[in-house]
Amino acid sequence: MRFTQIPGFARLIWAKSGENSGHGLLTHLLDVAAVTDAILEMEPTSSLRWVGLRLGLPLEHTRHWLAALVGLHDFGKAIPGFQAKWQEGMQADIACGLTFPSTACTVDNHSCATVALLGPLLRKASGVQRDWVKAVVQAIGAHHGYQFLSSEINDAKPINEPAQWKQARQAIFDAYWQTLAPQGVPTLDELELPVVNWLAGLTSTVDWIASNAEWFPLGERGHDGLAAYFAHARQLAFQALDKAGWQPFQPLLNASAATETLLAQVAGKESLSARPLQTVGDRLLQQAQGPSLLLVEAPMGEGKTELAFLAHLRLQAANGHRGLYVALPTQATGNAMFKRKLTFLESFVAGRADVQLVHGAAAMNDDLLQLRDIDHSREATLSASAWFSQRRRPLLSPYGVGTIDQALLATLNVKHHFVRLWGLGNRVVVLDEVHAYDTYTSGLMVALLQWLKALGSSVVLMSATLPQARRNELLAAWGVNAAQIPALAYPRVILADDAGVRGEHFSAWLLSPIHLHGLGESVEEMADQAIELLAAGGCGAVIVNTVERAQTLYRLLRERLGRDVQLLLFHARFPADERRAHEQKVLELFGQSQNRPQQALLVATQVAEQSLDIDFDFMLSDLAPVDLLLQRAGRLHRHIRCRPQAHADARLWVAGLNPEFPDLKKTAWGFVYDPYILGRTWALLRKESVLHLPDDIERLVQWVYGDEPLPQGLEETVQNQIEIESYGEHLAQQKRQRQLAMNITLDCLAELGDAYGGKPRGNEEGDDLRNVTRLGRDTVTLVPVAATENGWKVGDTLFQPDQLLDSETARLLYNRQINVSKTALVKHFQTGQYGQLPVSFTENALLRYFHPLVLVDGCYKVGKLNVRLDEELGLVYEKREGVSPPAHPC
């Protein structure tokens, strides 16, 4: 078939505007088919086997069928309404005899038109069943972000369209299908939702690549034969994929190796002795049959992270998994894990591989920036491609570390959610700290597990410990019922795979007994106790539940300790660059180094609670849910080292653990944590004097989160507050959050026609609509800048807010971001009360979703609130009594 054999009115229909006649629709369809074919040639055989089975195709025909189907994604551009969008292209169409009645031009959504118009032609040419074709055209037509509803599809056909348009579409389709000519006929009558969304994700991905005019020049490129054009397009496709950083699949482990040999490589060391967890876990992994779920419940320091990397090696070797994504609760824990993953990959990658850090502040991570634009001619193996780093694409990279939110968005009806699903399909996905989420986010996690299993992925779940109901819920999402779960003592590992469910208990490192002491809830009492303990030397920590409380306590301690004692403040309300510097200082002083100060004290919020390898001689903490309190306690005497005699025993003082029940409103603890869980934690721990970890973890957590009656001897008013008032609120909150999660998540078992009904379309953060992965107060991201007579300043750099920024200044501003949830501030900036965003922000890709916090003499006023950026304290909120002027810089 030749281009010159195609009727002119069909050949000139355009897909991409540009010089001369732009890029023809037929040529673009062939480009996309070529990229599809090239990408699938680089995929592991397991991916093609999985999708072929679910399409009803034999393995040998699957790749060519997919290329032929995906290429048709833009077929709906051959309608009057779309062709009228580019004046030059429209005039060329008219010159060839096509007409543009006004009624026919009212329909211009080409992607929905593909769904409405392609089915009959595809069904006739292929001989495939109607429902199969209907699902396929919906999948490829969704490439602009959303699956279409039936009502939208019904309205997507042009009205009173002249017959010649239908003839043009038929000519384009016939030429295309004759060129691709896929062999055989699919044997299935209908398709399940996971494979539909897998196909939708693949379609969007290849369209992004094939639409790059630098990689795919416009026009017919000097070819008359369509087969020759397609062959050349495949060559361009491989070149484009190489430029994008897309590499052929290569397993990291090519030969069997002993557990300790692999662990040493994982850690980047010459040798390493396996911990009991790692020995037991690897024994189970080597027995795994098919995609698997590995659930690890173990205290800190047992080597869970190394086991997760080892699990990837074993499961990838067994199942042909295409990559690894490690999902964590916060950006800070993600940054720390990214370093460890780089060490892991550098030990195993042969050739080239892409790796991405996947969260909202990844662009300012130094480790990631060093991997940009790597010159592989100098024997570098790892890089972080700029193509993969763009919005909605990072999960397409074979190796990534990021927040769990990036994966959870795959389960919501956000734009291009199926691209995330395609990226996570046939992967090993590690979900760390799975105990750290509320009922709503946990509900989203359940949906994610169901999707991952349906997409042929393996999952590693890691937690210090889980309430039994939570453990059962996660395993049920993988298809394991409660009767199948083995009864094992803590700590434990459970494996669920095609062969069933099995697990083992293992011995864990015994921490020093932790002596538990009660303390009043006031910051003054905490300061008194901290100073008394610090007088005996050593390094201590005071972990509190709110930033305001941390700032107040720091002020008190600084006044009384003077400048001779090292006193650090660490919380989330510092500008991002300062927060990273504080975190690094914390690790330097309290990490594994033996060069510790003789006397130092850290005041911190929950940011010091998770995934930081730090160690203290003594600790004070606000009352918190028992599992989180145990997490904090795990930082006591964590490393083997010489300690001051006064701190030879590990001791934990808990504010609010007095015989009197604490005031959860006055302290604000009841706004941070569930009052019912706090009440049960208080009721249990007030009777405890020594904690033996990890032996006590299971008993304490299961009691607090279970339904055992409260201990006897409580005052009636306190018992009623916990068992009646707080419990009622607890049940209502859980029910509400569980229902919200069910309402918003997409069910992987649903029929395509039903799956998206009633599911709100919402975009990711920064867009007008949002489907959230976590409940809580709304937030805004602010960038503090100093107002001067000559413009705004960030650091020593002066810039004009009404002018475009250079890249260096934009990055300086980006690195100063602060995420805040103060209601008055959020309302002020979200509703535009401050005025319009300046050009310096709106026209910059890094800053367009941020708001400048314009400080005069270090402060900004919003009604009765004074916002001040303090060098030591971070962002401080102060009430201004008796005034209510309009908001403005002060």
From TrEMBL:
Gene3D superfamilies per the UniProt record, alphabetical: 1.10.3210.30, P-loop containing nucleotide triphosphate hydrolases
Name the UniProt record assigns to this protein: CRISPR-associated helicase, Cas3 family
GO molecular function ontology, one term from the record: nuclease activity
Entry keywords, A to Z: Antiviral defense, ATP-binding, Helicase, Hydrolase, Metal-binding, Nuclease, Nucleotide-binding
Domain called Helicase C-terminal: residue spans: 526-725
Pfam families: Cas3-like_C_2, Cas3_C, Cas3_HD
UniProt-listed InterPro entries: Cas3-like_dom, Cas3_C, CRISPR-assoc_Cas3_HD, CRISPR-assoc_Cas3_HD_sf, DEAD_box_RNA_helicases, Helicase_C-like, Helicase_Cas3_CRISPR-ass_core, P-loop_NTPase
One record GO biological process: defense response to virus
Similarity section: In the N-terminal section; belongs to the CRISPR-associated nuclease Cas3-HD family. In the central section; belongs to the CRISPR-associated helicase Cas3 family.
Annotated SMART domains: HELICc (SM00490)
Domain HD Cas3-type span(s) in chain numbering: 18-209
UniProt source species: Lampropedia hyalina DSM 16112
First and last residue of the signal peptide: none
